[in-house]
Protein 1
Amino acid sequence: MKKRSAKTIRNLTGYAFIAPWLIGFLVFTAGPFIASIFLSFTRYDIISTPVWVGAANYKELLTGDPIFWKSLLVTFKYAAVAIPSGIIAGVALALLLNMELKGISVYRTIFFIPSIVPVVATSVVFVWILNPNSGLVNSILLRFGIMGPNWLQDKNWALWSLIFMSLWGVGGSMIIYLAGLKDIPIQLYEAAMIDGANAWQRARHITIPMLTPIIFFNLVMGTIGAFGTFTQAFVMTQGGPEDSTMFYSLYLFNRAWRYLDMGYASAMAWILFVIIMIFTGIIMKSHRKWVHYGN
Amino acid sequence: MSTKSPSGLGKYQRLGVHAALIMLCLPFIMPLIWMVSTSLKAPSQIAMKSGESAVAFSAKNLLPNPVKWDNYPKALETVPFAVYLRNTLFLCFFSVIGAVISSAVVAYGFARIRFKGRDSLFYLMLATMCLPGAVTMIPAFALFRWLGWYGTFLPLIVPAFCGNAFYIFLLKQFFATIPEELSEAARIDGASEWRIFRQVMLPLAKPALATCALFQFLGTWNDFFGPLIYINDPTKYTLAYGLQQFLASHGTEWAKLMAGACIFTIPIIILFFFAQKTFIQGIATTGSKG
């Protein structure tokens, strides 16, 4: 009897400690999560009560909304270019900055700092440096006799501008790869040297496989992040020109807060959720094939 | 990786490596130099008049000449950045306090108390980290509106007091490394779980708590979406939101705009230099433990 009550006390103490999270989870995550399924089947403008419309929102999205498809395409394009190039640039910089050289930490700091600049500040600065007439980028290009494009005002270049800007922040993932490089046991390289492996073979068969868990992590977070891309597009282009930077999250925001189409936006949120589930599912499934867990 | 160590490199090869690294650094550092330099330039040095053709870049144009310090007071006159700064710091203060304290309490519960359903709840918490915010934000917005919190700072502060899954995870990992004997000894002395948490565990967890505080500070400082949907009164704008509003309304006053961007960015860079170790370690653990 006494033992049982000690157990009860332990359970109660445990729940008392995790209570802040548990309450927050129920009120701000689980509750809204379920409510948004319901809202996705309604017409809801936040002011009046939701009106049940069945699957109408989903039907409209999939069959009658070209901007929805455009926003999916824009987001996929961005993800397909920005994520792989971010991984390649991050790994390459980390390999380069892993040298033992006097002053190397100064270079590391310079590459890292852009990644801590707030997104809104980065966006404002890039609007300025990508200004077609007075911007830094085009005036440097002109120095070399090149007439730069209109960047954010050109529908063929606007998305590319945002991709370049994402690469400017690559220093954050570079730091993660650098930490990973430090964890690779030196014996692996010594053994490989004895076996006569050259620098390329060592990178190909030791360094890259040992980094795959971190690459995997960045791939998953990058995919979720790409679908959440909002602030840059909102601040810099508002989705234009001609919807060429209409990211999924931006369109969702416009639907919800500009047009107060909260039911429709909830349906979009659920489609987004399913897409992310499918993608992380695919990445997770592939992970046995290429992710190497050495330790 | 000592195999890559260029200790075998000669003097000229080392110089070559430095030259290559400096070239590579330029695209990363130039936008920031340009931001600061523009914020100190006279209008005549910034943009040509309409009709003039674009000017090629020259080293002469890199630095402001003359240096116009009064762009800053002027920017502060046009846009109440001081008010935005105060609002931002207010939000940062309360959300850091809320997130760090609640995450530490919850993490202790998950790390040190064996209660029923602990492991499944912990996995559930980890799963919420991958949940896209879009799926919960509309009902959450409706909830805050129903509570009468729309237009106040409450929707931006209160959720922080429910802990943050990522910090809870980090702190739980940290608490798990502290030897059980330490709390066992206190327990034998009749200390309650709360006292063990407060007096034994918390003092040991200071570095991990600092990492969480730093991340939460940055997150709140940088947050744009929260203020965008919840704040409707210009006296309550944060720096992130105020800067975007400034771009939207005075889009071509580049000197003032860059002055605003500097006011928003430079504190973060200074903070980085003071807390470099916490920054780097925090980010590195994100990758390897996530």
Note: Residues 129 and 136 of chain A are 5 Å apart (CA to CA).
Protein 2
Amino acid sequence: MTDKKDHDPHAVTKVTPPGRVVALTGADGFLGRNLIGLLEDDDRVSRIVALDVERPATAGRKTRFYKVDLTQPRVDARLAEIFASEQVDTLLHMAFLSSPTHASAWAHELESVGTLHVLNACRERPVRKFVLWSHTILYGASPRNPNFLPETHPLRGHSESRFLRDKIEAEQVVASFARTSPGTLVTVLRLAPILGPTVKNYLTRYLGRTMVPTVMGFDPLMQFLHEVDALAAFKLAVMRDVPGVFNIVGDGVLPLSTVIQLTGRIGLPIPHPVMYPIARALWTAQLSEAPPTFVDYARWLCVADGDKALNELKFHPAFTTREAVLDYTHSQRMRDARLLRTTP
Amino acid sequence: MARKVLGNDPFGGDNPKPAAPAAKKAAPAKKAAPAPAKKAAPAKKAAPDTAKKPASVEKGAAPAKKPEGVWPAPEAAPVAEAAPVAEAAPVAEAAPVAEAAPPSIASVIAQLDALLDQAKDPAESRPLLDRLASRLRSLVQPEPEPERALAVDAPAAPAVHDEPFDAARELLGSDYYLRRWGQTAIRDRSEEVDDFGLDPDYARRWQPVWDLLYDRWWRVEIEGIENVPATGRVALVANHSGAIPFDGIMLATALRKEHPNARTLRWLAEDFVFHFPFAGAYLNRLGAVRACQENAERLLRKDACLALFPEGVKGIAKPYRERYQLQRFGRGGHIKLAIRTGTPIVPVTIVGAEETHPMLFQSGRLSKMLGLPFVPITPTFPLLGPLGLAGLPARWKIVFGAPIAMDAYRPEQSEDHVLVNRLNEKLRESIQSTLDQLLRARHSVFKG
């Protein structure tokens, strides 16, 4: 509140028409951090409200940070208070984990219940626009999937996977919020797995292994999204008012074996009957980056159709799937040779 | 070309090897990388000195340059206790001294150079050397010999020969062979595939096999290929037959070999092949796509030449006595699709495939165990193993009928069930009548 006096004169002198106030939950995540950096440079945004437990390092002059923990019970009232005092116009809800965790109870509180808190705050003090970060992996990998999953396809992610289930629950409550709150534009961006030079998630760790385990006899087509395109999609969603669900994906597909070849790694094919027990054991021993339910993604298709985002959101990915893999590979090789710091 | 650049260069990605096994062996600390650089610098510095002062070298006052010659000399009294060791491996042992005191090493070397420059005369150099020795002792904890420290200036090259197996060990230790293995596993694959996973390089590699089966084994005869339009979307609707279906691949081979435009055929394969290892991945690379409305529509909207087998599994799972009896044509999904996308349908009749793999009986228990819709027992298949997949050399005939235009219908009419059903039955009857006609005209299964 105190620094409001310092900020407002600047904002008024710089942006003649009053710009938007964009709030981000999970502001210190990869997407949040980089989006704050992008929005800081954008004149159409007058103020950024960063909500997280840690202050993002990219927070600049326009950013105001509030320490908010979505796992706390009374957080919805606090959020509503912040929305009202900051006059939040657009809320980006990105407080999700990018990789599966063993602390699944905490993850459930943060993702599933945390989304409920955020939506309750939005009901109490409506925002004009609500943008949700979601994933195409929620469709679930299956041999019965069409090659390109449309947005209308049901989310059939593995029911045993807490990681997927929490996110599916979050999407469901957001969908019902969109139905019951006509005053708020709700945009859901389902992002393909993100690859890029600086991003870190379960996928970059999986492809960063010397021997990359694959499932023998299966070579699914993979689809990735470059980190720059991921940020561009969120920026588009902030700037354009396009409600709805969108698959945000890179162009083109690559078989998993080709992806591994491009990254200069070696595939280690394991027959699928033993793959699941091995994956379970490694996950229990905390030696692997993803639970055994993720083996499905190395067996079957989970590729989404990005045409709707292209036509309605006008999202043109700058990087194809292949280019995203190559860009990731370049910096991964630098990291391998210890020429690049592992944490960007 | 990215293959060359990325990842497969066996040595390109390695750290620059610190080229000094002696240093590696002796180094107490993990300073392998900086050590050679620091060693190289004084060596270079020493070289011009030698060039500048050839006279002093000849006088024998350059202990650093000729260690073996100088050290055992009687005048080198303080060296006496160190002499045997110094003789054994003067260069190799020098490394720890150089490395043990990394912070002040540059200053010591500078002093050393200065001292050596002064040392014109062996007698004169004595006190200097003593001073240096004490200086180094104070610097280095594990009691180094000053004279050996001097040997730092000598080039360390001969020490490389100490490790004859180093290169071999390096080769085996690197992941070079693993990478070769990784490359071999996908040596015949393209770097890019199309949206539905067709791998052109992989498909080309398998073409000789299909050509052999097409030309020699089944001696496929073609009729009416001109009915397949040269460009634009087209749906080939064919009867599905033979317990192990090769009709998709043979149709693709026929279009590639006989069609004036050599059209690439995509065909829809039953769901169940994608449940299983190898089959789904393999067929996908060759051009098969999982049969579903979304895939078919997307392909046709991209003006593909698409083959459909509306009978599905029912067509291939029927026993031999029901050969050439068309089964139900699904629920007319292919007609709806053609109406919606305005795609002309070319009815295709395939004769001969039933006799290639006559299904004697199905193994119910085995199919339940494997989760397959049926496990065919044919005269050749489980008996002859993989070779039995080629089946019997029955002669094939493929007839492409006149195209049925679907432009007359509006896309909304794809939901008109009566119309769809009628068109579907008409299509089925036309293929059945062509089948009957061809069977009547055929004299022998194997000679045609």
Note: The longest strand of chain A covers residues 45-52.
Protein 3
Amino acid sequence: MAASPWRVTVIALAAALTAWVWILAGALFALRWNAIERPGPPIKEVFPYGELRIGIDASYPPFAVATSDGLFGLDVDLGAALAERIGIPVRFVNMGFDGLYDSLRADQVDIVISALRVDPARLGDVHYTTSYFNAGLVLVSDNALIETMPDMSGYALAYEFGSDADIQAKRWLRRIQPFATRPYETPGIALDAARVGEADAALTDIVSARLYLRQHPDWGAHYTPITDEWYAIASRIDKWILWETVERALQMLIQDGTLETIIDRWL
Amino acid sequence: MMNGLNTLWKTLFPHWRWYLRGGLVSIILVALAPAPPRAVLEAQQTVETTKSQVCVHTRLIDEVFEWKIQRSLQMVREMGADTIVEFFPWAYAEPGDGIYSWDSFDRIVRHARNQGLHIIARMGLVPFWARDDIAEQSTTLNYLPEDSFSDFADFVAVFAARYAGVIDHIIIWNEPNLSFEWGYRPVDPEGYVRLLQAIYAPAHAANPNVVILAAPLAPTLEPPGSPHGLNDLLYLQALYDAGAAAFFDALAVHTYGFTEPPEAEPGDTVLNFRRAELLHSVMVAYGDTAKPVYITESGWNDNPRWTKAVRPSERAAYTVNSYRWAEENWPWADKLCTWVLRYPANTGTYPDNFTLITPDFEPKPVYNALQEYARGWEGSDALWLPAPGE
């Protein structure tokens, strides 16, 4: 017996309605479930060695540097602050940059904090936290009319020869009205050129810019970000709870201003 | 029954013709999408150089686009280097036991040959099936259990046979004197000798002209018992003590200048460019004088903040002078290869400052300096302006 069209329509509508109700209920449940504050597993389970083991390449000031008195730097302070917030001791494992990701895989460390840029190619192996620092390029100038790269038309731009700034300058030359390019040997010399008037602005990485501005407080220059290089903390992808614990601690450091204080201490 | 299905179909999909048309348009749009840039082989090229020692380490294996491989190798040739060192990961070519996939290797070899370049192949990176049960123990891609030495030896032999006459120099492993390069286990010179032994005869049987290079060691001062690694001089002595001499034809060496110029005196407690001389002294001390040395990594870094870096101008001068030093003083060094031509993408930190060209193929000062040296050109104009006040 052939089914009448209205009967089929009613059945289909009923099925669709039922499915929607279930989907809606599921979504509401998921939202509610996520909102419930639950105690995490005991710290001993998350950190079975009883400490936060941090992989770090301490050869890259001001993020980390090794001296006879120990390790110092922005990343070191951040790691110590995270451990304190989590409530466990910290241990830094100093190693070469090449070994950092492998040390996670081999369970030699719990996390890596080492001026580590978020690398999309590694997202299958590691989790990254929220970025704690943007190490991209900035445009530094004491000219109030220069805020962004399009403002550079008709002016002179200083930068380090062969650097990312050099590449960015050439890209912008293809996009906007011409500006004069002034390559120098180092970012510091490029900033010198902008300060003494040989150039109207300098394009450098933010670390060089901030350190330079600290050394020259009388120079009334401002800077604006031009590119992004996000530094973040890496953990193993199969250690979800560990990542969540570290991420939560990092968020606390961001919200209470501790992270900003640490950055200001070093830059 | 059929009527019922027909009615259901029309009720649920009253606009099925439009869906069909939409699908067809999608297929046409996909077909019309621009193809990725092609990398057509050029007429056979030859390298113009006045310095046969000049060589560069490339990192092409992880490059996605074939045209970028071609462009990289063109720039090697244009620089005046006739040889590259390239990584050929076992895990890429043998994803399953006895199952081979050569495409990524072949495209590098094809373009290198087209540019007239020789290849020194570095082998390593263990496929998951050759490691211990990774569900029980998390291991790195540098973890090669002794049970799998024969698997690796089989692969090297297959590789040697496949590329015989094209790739006749094969480096076995990388820096085994570092714990992380040995799969985050304590370093084991005797174990590495057993690996060489497993590989040597099958590789020569597969390609009688093959030159097996013992792994380059990481320049390090780590003392015996260190969890990180072992001093390269001590490790090399341990290799000879374990009978390694019979199982390699040449020694690969890594030597970096760090903050010192190439002429700086070497010493047991110093890491600098001339540490290669100390490694060669170990070879001589063990009577292994006839074997050549291939310096497969060398160079300086010009990151503005890395503690082991120099300024860009120093980097360019030191690099060229290191070739002069090797040419005049190291007759035992067949090749001096600079690390590294280019990365597919920047790392965002100091390793980027080892490259000779940017990911966008912009040559750095050190590339230009090496090119002038290798091709015998006169020095060009200054590449950057003098500092204010100079």
Note: The two ends of chain A are 81 Å apart (CA to CA).
Protein 4
Amino acid sequence: MQDPVIEARGVSFAYRAGSGPGSGSAKTPHVAVRDVDLAVRRGEIYALLGTNGAGKTTTLEVLEGHRAATSGTIRVLGGDPADRRRIRPRLGIMLQDSGLAAELSVRESVALAGAVSGRRDDVDKLLDRVGISHRSRTRVAQLSGGEKRRVDFAMAVWGGPELVFLDEPTTGLDPAARDALWTVVDELKADGVTFLLTTHYLEEAEKHADRVGLMHAGSIRRQGTLADLTEGGLSTIRFVPPGALDDIPIPLAGTQNGLAVIETTDAQRDVAALLAWAAGHGHPLRRLTVRESGLDDIFRALGHEAPGHEAPGHEAPSHEGANL
Amino acid sequence: MNAIAIAESRMLLRNRLVSGCAILLPLALGLILYASRDTHKPGGTIAGMQTVLMIAMGTYVTATTTLAARRQTLFLKRMRGAAVSDKAIITGLLLPVVAVNLVQIGVVFGILAATDTPANPLLLAVAVLLAEAMFTGLALATAGFTNSPEHAQYTTAPVFLATAAASFWSQAPGLGGPIAVKRALPGGAVAELVSTAWNGGSLASVPVLLAASLGWAIAGVLAARTYFRWEPRR
């Protein structure tokens, strides 16, 4: 791979006994991240998706340099992400939890983050760009959750860092605010900024991410482009059964909520056959829909996998950076 | 560091509860001690107790509360994600607290000095700074096992009471006891050092008092390095 901005090999992380999310009162260390291999190219958006407790945030925090990996090697922008003098001025970080000071105003908070970032920017222009300038003088304590996320985002992208980590950036935002945030991300990407982010909104990952990594039980189970991940997946054709289906040319998978369901690996061919059959018999095909296999299908299947299980037919990430 | 210190000053002044504890209570303590002093005795006795109590309240309790609050809201974690060192973060957070406390001590000492001027201002300044170092270190250490600002009311009580008691035992007239033990207790030596600097006279005990005060300052810093945590325990 040419010029990887993030390169992680065999990275694992365990919370000490009794500490860390999901550890409860356990007396043994809680392994949150297991043998993760990840490489992110310059200028791409890489989305890390996963079930709850899959280890996405911990992975991000290890790659940000917030936590030291228990094992494995990490190179971020060619160095150690915990190097605050050389690497951190090139990074923007948006944590999952706010970390904002309630007593400071929006403007003061962003200006403080800028002052300690090692980069320069215009605070008023930036607040305007992320759509929070109307609350510039408001104290953080008085902001809604969505407004705080916008402040967080402004802090992360202050001064145009080379690499930005975003941990669930759009959680709590209304649809318009989500769109506005993604517009800024896409603009920065066009300027060459690299993004590694986590999200629970699969449609955002499908729309904006160049590549996706799917995590479950601490490890990345699959990664690649959307096309890579959904290749070979079943598309679904649904329609209201027009009476007799005895001579229908394609076998039905069943019925669901009063709709006939066909699962196929070649939607175009089967829709054409279905339409020809309906036309030939004078059947109306009401509420006909075709849905391609998407991330949500793969995502749901992840939840049924046991820890350590690798799905057949999908290449697990290797130390050589497969699927990259 | 400057940006963090300025932001922390704003936060300190805007939070009425914290600013009341940080500004009014230490001043009140110092003035109560001043009002209750024996006017026939030299001012050093009361200055020693003022120093320990005012720094214990103004720096130790306030800094512990502030650090616990900043950690609880993940402000410390956010700062650690930036391009500043841990030392700059801690210095920026504690500078306003210590600066306010030094001004308070300056005000109270100024009032006391109107009737009884200190004999050795340089030694007095050294003693105050050593006390600040000790209490700052202990605040960082105490903050390590203080989960929230509210929790600080309990976690700071042992050190606050112990140092206050040591300074009283060391300075209050008529209280006996082995002098070595008084000096070995946290706050005991520094109270006696302030008293000696204020009253003047023989400086024979100063090296021992300086060593004991410095020892506690170093102990405070070591405790801070051992027990301070940047993120909440979950």
Note: Residues 175-190 of chain A form the longest helix (16 residues).
